[in-house]
Write a structure and sequence with these properties.
The complex is a heterodimer of chains A (about 350) and B (about 190). With about 350 residues, chain A is mainly alpha-helical. Chain A is built from 13 helices and two strands; from the N terminus they run αααββαααααααααα. Helix content of chain A is about 70%, strand content about 0%. Chain B is elongated. The chains are: A mainly alpha (about 350), B alpha+beta (about 190).
Chain lengths: ~350, ~190
């Protein structure tokens, strides 16, 4: 019993380290640096410790210090309690979704079954969507409680956009569920062991899911809620210091979540194509049973986070390539194109399953 | 409800399907990204960096400006170590910002070869608008626009440069002098 608890604790600490401790801060640097290199600039490289700049990586520390020491400003006429609460409501669901995200398969280590997921829920996928839509409350309440017109407009746009695209997202997922016959993320991941990846079964579903996911994360080209040129900063106009940092962190962690969910549903989770777990295990047979399992586990975790990193990279490229959609274009794309297309996708998948 | 604006854009079916065009745009940005990313590699092999980046690290490096660039105006110090200025006051009159202040004096025989010389010549760079009219007005080739533009002080009074700070040897102003002769010579003043 104690050993189970210890394993769970290790998994939780690992996930928190990777998302909050590694991805969220490093992505702030990556976004600045990647955009700079993409636009033939140099990017952040001035913060230095004893003359070392480390390609601008110390800007992460500088940013964190700045956010910690800044004045925590609450505007006049704002609802103080909700204004303080909303960044928490926005950030916590972003981290919480990782509770059901598997980052590896099942391995036998010294007679102990290790399942690399914190909580292996039967309805894992539904849990992800349920929790991530709670974050919408955080954004809407943040906009409303700020007592600021820009914030309120940003919050309204957030609400309409999130609701519109959540419908598409949910319907796109139905196709994946029909293809794999399960909502358990570990089962979906394990089903893509060889080359039966989700993208092969649901190519249209992948495109629509990717579009809807970027819209859910409110990044360019769907950044109408926080459009700098129109609404100053949208729903977090009136936030400063670490509360602003929490919104910022939530956005980057959501990027990681989208990358992880996309990897699990469409890109073979932790598997390498044409290399099944059994083949990998036989390759490392000389290390003994547990040793081979350990090596395969490390490979799988590495492969999984490699794929996640690739999808974060793709999201960044999209962010720095496309211009922002107009508000009516966002609504038109959501309701008139993506929704019928996702419904057709379900019908097509059903027909395929029925007649083949 | 948004109203429809006919922008007279004729798009083919391929362009209107949107996704291929997105991919094309992403190809362009990623090409720049990878070219600039791996342009570092020749640097470690001891060659020149193969990148398209033209950022200048400002305080450490400065740009080489074209000769027509108008920086701060300076006074020319000729080969005999005397200022070319004869304190005629034409630049003072030409200055639209009234930043030049000259106090002329009568030559006692050692300051200059002509009868007048500037006892005091000050330019207030906090007021100067870098227009170059003084240079154009000068009949003696005594005042020139240099390529220095970064005059920053914490005290506004220090922005007022006097004679000693303004004088620059004429050998450093050779190019600008040639440019001025060509430029203003064709109007035949």
């Amino acid at each position: 019993m104690w050993i189970d608890l210890a394993i769970t604790m290790v998994k939780i600490i690992f996930i928190l380290t990777v998302t909050v401790g590694f991805f969220a801060p490093v992505l702030t640097w990556v976004e600045r640096k990647q955009s700079a290199i993409m636009q033939d600039r140099i990017g952040a490289n001035r913060a230095d410790i004893m003359g070392f700049t480390a390609l601008g990586l110390f800007h992460i520390i500088a940013d964190a210090l700045k956010m910690f020491t800044k004045e925590d400003f609450i505007p006049q006429g704002a609802n103080r309690a909700l204004h303080t609460l909303s960044p928490i409501v926005a950030l916590v669901p972003a981290i919480l979704t990782f509770a059901v995200v598997p980052f590896g398969g099942q391995y036998t280590l010294w007679g102990k079954e290790v399942n690399l997921v914190i909580s292996d829920l039967d309805v894992g996928l539904l849990f992800v969507f349920a929790i991530s839509s709670i974050a919408t409350y955080g954004y809407v309440v943040a906009g409303w409680s700020s007592n600021n017109n820009w914030s309120l407009l940003g919050a309204m746009r957030t609400a309409s956009q999130m609701i519109s695209y959540e419908v598409t997202m949910g319907l796109t997922i139905i196709g994946v569920l029909m293809a794999f016959g399960s909502m358990q993320l570990t089962v979906i991941g394990a089903a893509q062991e060889n080359y039966y990846w989700g993208i092969v079964m649901q190519p249209l579903g992948f495109l629509m899911f990717f579009t809807a996911a970027i819209a859910e994360n409110k990044r360019v080209p769907f950044d109408a809620p926080e459009a700098e040129s129109e609404l100053v900063a949208g729903y977090f106009t009136e936030y400063s210091g670490l509360k602003f940092g929490m919104f910022f962190m939530a956005e980057f962690i959501e990027m990681v979540t989208i990358g992880a969910i996309m990897t699990i549903l469409f890109f073979g989770a932790w598997h390498i194509p044409f290399l099944t777990t059994a083949t990998l295990l036989s390759m490392f047979d000389f290390l003994g049973d547990s040793g081979a399992n350990l090596v395969v586990m490390l490979i799988h975790v590495g492969v999984f986070f490699g794929k996640v990193t690739f999808f974060i990279f793709v999201q960044m490229i999209i962010r720095w390539t496309l211009p922002r959609f107009r508000y009516d274009q966002i609504m038109k794309l959501g309701w008139k194109i993506l929704l019928p297309a996702s419904l057709l996708n379900i019908v097509g998948t059903g027909a395929f399953i029925l007649w083949w | 409800m948004a109203y429809f604006v006919d922008r007279n854009v004729k798009m083919t079916w391929w362009e209107r399907s949107y996704i291929p065009e997105i991919l094309r745009g992403m190809m362009i940005t990623s090409r720049h990204f990878f070219k600039n990313l791996f342009g570092f590699v020749p640097f470690f092999l001891g060659k020149k960096k193969d990148r398209e980046i033209f950022t200048v690290y400002y305080p450490e490096e400065t740009m080489q400006f074209p000769i027509a660039y108008r920086g701060r105006p300076v006074l020319a110090l000729n080969e005999d170590n005397l200022p070319n200025c004869v304190a005629c006051g034409l630049c003072e009159i030409a200055c639209p910002a009234y930043c030049i202040d000259i106090i002329p004096g009568e030559n006692s025989g050692k300051q200059n070869k002509v009868e007048r010389y500037p006892v005091k010549f000050t330019i207030d760079y906090a007021v100067c608008i870098f227009c170059g009219f003084c240079e154009e007005a000068c009949p003696e080739e005594a005042i020139f626009m240099s390529d220095q533009y970064d005059i920053t002080m914490l005290d506004r009074k220090k922005m007022k440069y006097d004679m000693e700070q303004l004088l620059v040897p004429v050998s450093e102003l050779k190019d600008r002098m040639d440019f001025c002769r060509k430029m203003y010579g064709k109007w035949n003043y």
